[in-house]
Amino acid sequence: MQSRKLIVDVLAQKEIGSTVEVKGWIRSVRNSKAFAFFVLNDGSCQKTLQIVIDADLPNFTEVTKLLIGSAVRVIGKIVESQGKGQDVEMQASTIEIVSATPEDYPLQKKATSLEFLREQSHLRVRTNLFGAIFRVRHQLAMATHEFFSSKKFFYLNSPILTTVDAEGAGEMFTVTSLKPHELKAGPDFTKDYFGKQTHLTVTGQLAGECFAHGLGAVYTFGPTFRAENSNTARHLSEFWMIEPEKAFMDLEEDAILASDYVKYLINSAFKHCSDELEALRGYHEFQAKQEKQPFTNHLEVLDAVRNSEFLQVSYTEAMQILSKSGHKFEFPTNWGDEMQTEHERYLTEVHFKQPVIVKDYPKHCKAFYMKQNEDGKSVRAMDVLVPGVGEIIGGSQREDDLDRLIQRTRELQMNETHLQWYFDLRRFGGTPHAGFGLGFERAIMYITGMKNIRDVIPFPRTPNSCEF
Ligand code: 4AD
Ligand code: MG
User: Same domain for 67 and 141?
Assistant: First the structure.
């Protein structure tokens, strides 16, 4: 009995002369009278295995009729490759057709548009491009656990159902078991499943703060939901966020943790996904040529980033840079104005041309839980901005002064009764503490160079779109 192997292992082990079994999908077919070639991929790696099929194979005629996308099981001998591009190939002795694709298989070899592929979300992962993106996504998730675990942050599963609007932006999805007619009558949430209005969480942070005050340091890595109506290339209604939180940590240490984490992610992708990154680079180069745009190799940019310090500026300095830039912005740039995407991108892409951490934002621009500075106007917030994406991380030192925290929730007319437990964290052994949230898809965009966030999540959810 020959052993079944993944293509990744066949290509790594290069056991010339051994007979193995592989299973996968046909990427391309080349036929001639005397023999045929399949290019086979099984998802285990970016590379493919070339299968050589001689005309004396019993089912040669059926096999050579197979179309791209068909699933096969192949047994054969590993031989040195005659062609260039691979060291080994497989000389097939048996090919079993697991499923033959009909004529109208939607993914053909010719470059297919990302928009089209988004409608084929169930099939797009079989393409070269999406295989690369989703293997990188996996690696970044693994790297996240490695990074925080090595720094003694414990992995925390924070709840998905919650009654707290922690970000205060009011962009929450309500979860209810009330019937349509009960909702229509003006919903009485005291009669709802949990006895009060409940939402899908926008952040795991408050749970993180809670557990950081017992375990010392924790991180969440879970789905978050925002009902904001921003149909942009950088927003999803359901996205994944990594939120570390640590007791006895201030904003300075938080900023270092954030930049070390981003660099760790880049390093990990370079180390474990070189074939994927190379395929992505090739894709972007091809794309730039098609669109007659200048091509910048995003891998060179990332390589420089992982070896450099992240710059830090205050919100005040950032707004001055924008005001003096001579650039015409759609939104104003006076102290106190919201920093808009166009501002963030100008700072990181045009002015600094590298990642930059902006700190100490006006308090009315940020959430209630952030620690107030002595000036009474600004808070200890930090946003990490990167070229091509903009905000990738939002974080802060948290308000540990109970009186100030209560005062702030009153100013914002928040529901204090829902927050008593959160106040208790300050009453009983409170500490100066801090954390941040990294938008996982934004980080994947940054590292893969993809321009639309919908292309880096398996099944994107956006306004008016919840398919599959
Ligand atoms: O800046 P945000 O809103 O911060 C928080 O939620 C804090 N509770 C984090 C913390 O301090 N623990 O969101 C954090 C990050 C953003 O920087 C962005 O990368 C991402 O989450 N993000 C989104 N990603 C995709 N789609 C959306 N609609 C996003 N909203 C935020
Ligand atoms: Mg933010």
Answer: no
How many domains is the chain built from? 2
Instruction: Name 381's Cβ contacts closer than 8 Å, sequence gap at least 6.
Output: 359, 360, 361, 366, 370, 394, 395, 396
Q: Which ligand is nearest to the CA of 224?
A: 1
Mutate to test the pocket of ligand 1, among 442, 445, 453, 456 (most ligand atoms within 8 A of CB): 442
Residue 350 scores a pLDDT above 60: yes
In this structure, which ligand is nearest to the CA of 438? 1
Q: Name the least confident of 1-5, 34-38, 137-141, 191-195.
A: 1-5
Same domain, 172 and 264: yes
Residues 72 and 151 in one domain: no
Q: Which domain holds residue 30?
A: 3-99
Do 134 and 69 lie in one domain? The reply is: no
Distance between CA atoms of residues 209 and 434, nearest Å: 8
**Which tokens hold the place of 21?**
């079994």
CATH number at residue 257: 3.30.930.10
CA 153 → CA 39, 130, 203, 250, distances in Å?
Answer: 44, 31, 18, 16
Q: Are residues 35 and 91 in the same domain?
A: yes
Q: Are 303 and 345 in contact (CB under 8 A)?
A: no
pLDDT (tens digit per residue) in 112-145: 788 888 888 888 898 999 999 999 999 999 999 9
Q: Is residue 60 domain-resident?
A: yes
Q: Which atom of ligand 1 is nearest to the CA of 396?
A: 11
376-396 pLDDT, tens digit per residue, is: 999 999 999 999 899 999 999
Q: What is the pLDDT of residue 113?
A: 81
Six-digit token string for 193: 């499943």
For ligand 1, is residue 355 a contact (CB within 6 Å)? no
384 lines ligand 1 (CB under 6 A): no
Pocket test for ligand 1, best of 241, 357, 450 (most atoms within 8 A of CB): 241
pLDDT higher than threshold 90 for residue 458: yes
Tell me, in angstroms, the distance from the centre of ligand 1 to residue 437's CA.
Answer: 6
Q: 439 in ligand 1 pocket by Cβ < 6 Å?
A: yes
| Ligand 1 pocket check for 409: Cβ under 6 Å | no
